[in-house]
Structures are given as structure tokens and as C-alpha cells.
Amino acid sequence: MGMNRRDFLKCSTATCAALAALEMKGGNFLRPSKAIAADLPGSLGAKEVTSVCEMCFWRCPIVGKVKDGKVVKIEGNPKSPVNGPRVCARGNSGVQLVYDPDRVKYPMKRMGARGEGKWAKISWDEALDEIAHNIQAVKKKYGPHALAYFDHGASAENMRGIFEAMGTENYTSEPAFFQCVGPAALAYLNTVGYITTGTRQYNDMGHAKAMLLVGSHIGENIHVSHVREYIQGLSSGAKLVVVDPRFSAPANKADIYLPIRPGTDNALLLAWINYVIQHKLYNKEFVANHCQGFDELKAATKDYSMDWAARICDLKVGDMKAAIEVLAKASPHVNIHPGRHSTWYGKGDVGRHQSLAILTALFGAVAVPGGIYLPTPVKPSKAECAEAKAAEVESPAASLKEGKYPFSSPFGSVTADVIQAMITGKPYPVKLLGVNGVNIIQTIPNPYDTMKAINNLDFIFCEEMMAGETAVWSDIVLPGAVYLERYDDVHTYDGLTPYLTVRQPVVPALYEAKSPYWIAKNLAKRLDIKGYTCEKEEDFINEMLKGAGLTLETLREKGGIVTYPGNPYRDPKKLEIKTDSGKVNLSIKEFADAKLDAMPKFEPTPAPPKGYTRLIYGRSPIHTFSRTMNNAWLHNEEPENRLWLNTEIAKRLGIADGEAVVLENQDGKRSLPIKVLVTPGIRPDAVYMAHGFGSRSPLLSRAYQKGAADGFMMTNLVADPFIGATSKRTNFVRIIKDNKVLDIPELRPVPKEIPYFEIKRA
Ligand SMILES: Nc1nc2c(c(=O)[nH]1)N[C@H]1C(S)=C(S)[C@@H](COP(=O)(O)OP(=O)(O)OC[C@H]3O[C@@H](n4cnc5c(=O)[nH]c(N)nc54)[C@H](O)[C@@H]3O)O[C@H]1N2
Ligand SMILES: Nc1nc2c(c(=O)[nH]1)N[C@H]1C(S)=C(S)[C@@H](COP(=O)(O)OP(=O)(O)OC[C@H]3O[C@@H](n4cnc5c(=O)[nH]c(N)nc54)[C@H](O)[C@@H]3O)O[C@H]1N2
Ligand code: SF4
Ligand SMILES: [Mo]
Which fold is adopted by the domain 195-373+570-593? Predict the structure, then answer.
């Protein structure tokens, strides 16, 4: 990795843990735990099977080591570009997902109340018959659009075909779009002509001379190749600017760290854009040849001064100027990170990402080393036999795909609206929900509404492997095979060095778990849906591989992975921009046509009301959302989250490090107890916790009620006006200690441009 001593000293605990994980070749770097190490033999002499990780959706190529019929170790596929033999802590711990005692082992039917976790074991025939019966009954009574499907990840595609074939449009990649990349995706699509943050990230940190991270907390946010490219950039001397109200893992490594007032990033970005234009720091050739809207942008940003932004953002002018100078100096090899999780404050989220895309373009950092780059698609052929025959879907008069939001429809129905339709029956009733790969109670904010919505449904079922919240709230639970036990798609990577690989079973499925294809095929039969005609699962993989001139057999001979030459950069003279205008849009006509802002502007998000502080959140480097909380190895490492609380606030409230407190939000909702981490590394106007903890499923024996869930504090959601994605950082909390509600003092004065949040409850 080429780190020198100084770099090593700069490495924070969290970052070092993450980096150690990446360098471990999947070794056992975790703290020893007697309970879990005992029943696994060593991996020496084990059989090796290549496959693809799904401990998160980044899908790193892996090798599973199998001994005595058990998967005993997971490493990265050594032939995989960038990753090589490395996996992260979660990838390594996939072993413990297979053998988790709290897996869903058989088809289950709910016996107690929704959420209670009382189940009866039923047969596959009973389970599938009952699901098919309910799908048909709901469709007959309310029409096809009363059927909804929430999905995420590789297991969900097959079943999605069923919902398409039933004629509903209410399937949505929720929450991975409407709670994640949505606003960023829309902004980049309309500014530079493609989505830089899809399943992949097309930003070339490895070759950057300077990087800007706004929020993006790489090192806590872990995707192996992404982190390695970031480290490659830093090790090669790239300067790093980090903007975060919290001293995050990358803040530890930053040359310039800007501890910004939460919610004010676009003030900083707009002041920077203005500064770059006024001081002629932009790439004149790139702007002249490839951008439209420069004069409009110049006029629109001219009043965003550094002094103004410093006051709004609570930063120092000198630091802000130094930062933009560092970035400009590296132009065009400068990485303005496009971010990933972008549903922060609702109103300004698209605009903030427009500003990031605009800065990228002003620096000419498009399709050049170090900037954002162009994907190189790797396209396996389609396997018709793996699909259902889709029905003609007629949009109902009041579509939840379009609704109030002019740009949502290509991305699926607006989830918040589908949930409201379940609660209110308006604009039409939604009465059945299928869930696959989403933990709806933990990852869709405002779980109180989600629970209300579920209780209004005629029927809810899911395909799951863990007895988490989604499972215990479902009427029928189908045991899905773990990714190590099944075929899936052919997985492709269209980044700097593109590749193609295949997920294949490392071990046979345990208990009565079945693959997503088997489940979809057997449900389709009962619904008279044509399609899913492959006899064996190998058939559709082979069908897809045909386009790449491969078979499963030949791919296995090649080590399970094939790489291709990438084509990420362009000579600026030959660069084609794929927007409607053929130019980078510094001002977006399509937005103006929809009566929205063509250019970003500062949208103040309300400040914490008196006595409250803002709740912010992020990732634990060794957990994935809520899905890994019960994993023996990962739970052993980090069983619960901590509440980051500013030292001065803690002192004034008399709260000591490690003490357990309860949070109460602006709507009176209370959290589970959470232990405090007293630290100067967070501003006094925010508290922070890692997402995913505080499980509400009594069937998860390790994770149940360990730590607190951020989502249970999120009842104030602000929709962005473009796609209807909802905010999450618009919630405020007070601290309850020993049953006493403690008011949090305001230590950083709020400027007059920012209103306070008004509490409406009595
Ligand atoms: N280990 C692990 N890695 C993951 C995941 C996981 O579950 N586990 N999930 C993956 C997924 S799907 C995603 S989307 C990404 C998410 O990861 P990112 O895209 O990096 O998420 P962000 O919300 O941008 O970053 C969180 C950071 O934002 C800071 N923050 C909070 N409010 C503000 C603000 O107003 N301004 C600024 N500038 N910063 C603020 C927080 O302090 C925190 O450090 O992580 C990915 N990587
Ligand atoms: N409060 C709050 N909400 C958030 C976020 C946050 O930071 N805070 N982050 C948002 C972001 S960025 C994202 S991307 C989303 C992620 O949202 P989700 O994808 O819902 O996240 P998980 O909690 O991992 O839930 C995945 C569920 O699928 C199951 N699962 C895992 N693998 C498989 C599989 O192969 N097959 C099947 N059938 N099921 C499987 C897991 O057991 C788990 O129950 O959450 C968003 N929501
Ligand atoms: S980043 Fe980690 S968890 Fe995600 S796919 Fe790669 S190894 Fe698996
Ligand atoms: Mo995400």
C-alpha cells in the first residue's frame, strides 16, 4: 500500500481498522471469540470456489474456501483488479451469515401480531399457494396497482419480474434509490450526461492530485476497490480536502478539514464556484468547448461571497480559500467526489450535487485521469429463459411514479407516496407488498408510518435470510438462499479495469432455503405467468455468458473472472457529452421547464430548535446497514453503536463518556438506550450515530435492542421537489438521562438567514 510513517501516524483508529481489514487477505483479524471460532476447521487444503460477495451490493469478486462441506474462509479473488485477494471485514464474515442460528430456515407463517415474531413452519407449497392466492385476490379486488414491491440487491431481480407481469408499476428499488443516490444521480445525469454514482462510482481517486470529500466518509464507508483507489491517490501525494461536521475517518487524513455547520454545504460550494469564476481559476478551454450556461451561472452565483459563506457555514474564510486554491491547482486532475448517499436535507439535495458536478466541469475534470471518468460497459447477453413475460403496464390516472415529482418516473414509484397510499388509500389503495433485500422498518425513515402502512395491508410477504424486522412483520417469509449458496446474475464491473464474473454456489443451500430463481419460477407457475423457462440455473448463466464468448466451464478455468481493457478517459477534443444539449449543463433547461431551479441556489435547512441538536448518521466500517448486526464475527467486533457528543456539551450536561442515554426527537419519539462517546470530534450543534443498530426483531438473538436506530428518530421528512426522495438529517433530538430531559445549549450562534425548526406538537 506504500504508506510512509507520517501517513501511518495520520491514520485514525477507524481508518486503520478499515485499512487493516483491506490488507488482511480475508484473514482472521477480528478479536478472538471462543463461542464462534470453535466449530470451524482451518482453511489449509480447502477446496476453492470463485464467486461474488453480497455482504454489501458492491459485489467484490471472492474465493470461498470449503472444507468438510463447510465454507470456512472467504478471500478476494486474486485475479480481481484493484481488490486482488482482499475483502473487507464484512466480506470476510459472510461465513457467519451462512451459519447464523437466526437464519430463516423454512417457509414461515406469522401466528402472532405483526412484529411479534411468532411463527409456524409451513411447506413451500403452502407458502407459495398462499402468496399466489393473495396476489390474485388483491389484484381482482383493487386492480394491479394495489400490488407493490420494494427491493434492493441481486436477489430481487427475478421476483421483480412477477410484479411486472402482474401489471403494476409500483415496484421500486427502495430504499437504495429514494433514500440514497437519487438526488446525486439526477444532478449528474442532467449536468454531465451520465450517473457517476450508480452501483459503481466513476471517480478516479487513484490518479487524482487533489480530492474533495463533502460528507463522503471513505474509510467508514467501505467498498474495497473504492477505498483502495482513495488510498492509492493519497499515497501518491494527492491533497485532501474534507468537509464534514464530524471529524470523520477521512478528516483524519485531510490536508484541510472544514468542520461545516450541518446543512450549509451548498453555501460553501456556491461561494467556491463564484470564487473560481471571479479569479479565473476555471479551465477556459473545457468551459468554452464543452459547457453551456456559463454566463448565467456567473450571474447567478456572483453574490455568494466567501465572507457570507463563512458566516453561514461557520467556517474561516482563510481555510475556505486555501481549500479551493488547493483543488484549483490540481485541475484538471482533481477529484470532486460526487458523493453517494445524497438524501440529506430534502430541498437542496439535487442542487448540492449540481454544484459538485459544476465544480468538476469548471475544472475540466471530466474523462481525464483523476476526475470523473466514463464507464466502459461490459454487456453479457440477455437470458430470456430467466425472465417473466412482462405485461403491458398501464399507468393509473394518478400515478405514484410521477405524482408531484417531475423527474421521478424513470426510477420507479416514489416510495414515500406508495407508503402514504397504503395508509390513506389515496390516490388509490395499495394492499399487498412483496419485499426482497430491504429491511423496510430500519431503512425507510419514519418506521412509525411504515408500520402503520404494513398494518393496513391485506398481505405482506418477503424473501429473506435473516429473521430481522422485515421477516417478523411479514405474513409469509420465504427462506432465501444466502449468496454463497446460489447462482445469480453474471456480474460486471464497468470501472477503470472492467471485468465479468459470476456468482455461483460455494456450498449447497442449508435447510429449506431456495434460490431467487427457483422461488420466482415456482411462484410464476401458480400465477400463470409465462417465462422462467430455464431448466437448470446454470442454463441462464451460460446463456448470458454466450455474449462474452464464455461458458461457466471456461470462465471457471480462467479463475472465475475475465478482465477487459477500459476506456475511461478521452482527449478533450474528442469528448462527447451525452446530455440533450450535447454540452455540460451549468444551467439545466429541463429543470427550468419543470418550473424548478435551473441552477443551484442556497436552500437553508432549519436549525435545531432551542434545547435540541441535530441527529446525523453514517456508516460503521464493519457493518452493512442493518443486515450484518446479528453476524457473529461483526457483532463481536461492534455489538452496539455510540452517540458522538461534543465534549463541551457533555460537560455542561454532566454526561460522562460511556454513559447510556435515551434520545427524544422533535415529535416526542424515544430511542433505545445508547452509550455516549464524548469527543471534540463533533460540532456542538449535532450528535452522530452509525446507522443499522437497535434491532426491533426479537428473533435476532445477538442484535435485538443493541444500540439505537437512527431511523426511529426520523419523523420529519422533507421531500426534494425533483424526484420525491426524502431527507433524513432534518430531525432533532434532546437527551434523556436518568429520566430527566436535558436541554442542549446552543454554542454556535445561528445566522439570521437560517430559520429555526418549529416544533408543532403540544
Ligand atoms: N461499511 C459500510 N460501508 C458502506 C455502507 C455500509 O452499510 N457499510 N453503505 C454504502 C452505501 S449504500 C452508501 S450510500 C455509502 C454512504 O456513505 P457516504 O456516501 O459517504 O455517506 P454520507 O452521508 O455522504 O456521509 C456520512 C458523513 O456525512 C457527515 N455529515 C452529516 N451531515 C452533514 C452535512 O450537513 N454536511 C456534510 N458535509 N457532512 C455531513 C457525517 O458526519 C458522516 O461523516 O456508504 C457505502 N459504504
Ligand atoms: N435511517 C437510515 N435509513 C437509511 C440509511 C441510513 O443511513 N439511515 N441509509 C440508506 C441507504 S444509503 C441505503 S443504500 C439503504 C439500504 O437499505 P437496505 O438494502 O434495506 O439495507 P439492509 O439493512 O442491509 O437490509 C437488507 C435486507 O435484505 C436482507 N438481505 C441481504 N442479502 C439478501 C439476499 O441476498 N436476498 C434477500 N432476499 N435478502 C437479503 C437482509 O437480511 C436485510 O434484511 O438504506 C437507506 N436508509
Ligand atoms: S466491500 Fe466488503 S462487503 Fe462489500 S462486496 Fe466488497 S468485500 Fe463484500
Ligand atoms: Mo446507499
Answer: Dimethylsulfoxide Reductase; domain 2 (3.40.228)
Domain 5-98 belongs in CATH node 1.10.1040.10: no
Report which protein residue has its CA nearest ligand 1's atom 6: 624
pLDDT in tens, 303-315: 999 999 999 999 9
Condensed to tens digits (0 to 9), the pLDDT of residues 714-754 reads 999 999 999 999 999 999 999 999 999 999 999 999 999 99
Residues near ligand 2 (Cβ within 6 A): 54, 152-153, 155, 175-176, 179-180, 341, 436-439, 442-443, 445, 463-466, 468, 470, 480, 483, 617, 624-627, 691, 710-711, 714, 728
Per-residue confidence band for 762, with pLDDT thresholds at 50, 70 and 90: low
Residue with cell 408500520: 451
Rounded to 10°, the helix 265-278/317-330 angle is 60
Looking from the CA of residue 440, the nearest atom of ligand 2 is: 20
Cell, residue 655: 454526561
Topology at the third CATH level for domain 613-742: Barwin-like endoglucanases (2.40.40)
Distance 730 CA to ligand 3 centre (A): 30
CATH of 108-176+379-479+508-536, one of 3.90.180.10, 2.60.120.10, 3.40.50.740, 3.90.550.10: 3.40.50.740
CA 160 to chain centre: 20
CB atoms within 10 A of CB 520: 26
Does the reported pTM lie above 0.90? yes
In angstroms, the CA 488 to CA 504 distance is: 7
CB 53 near ligand 3, within 6 Å: yes
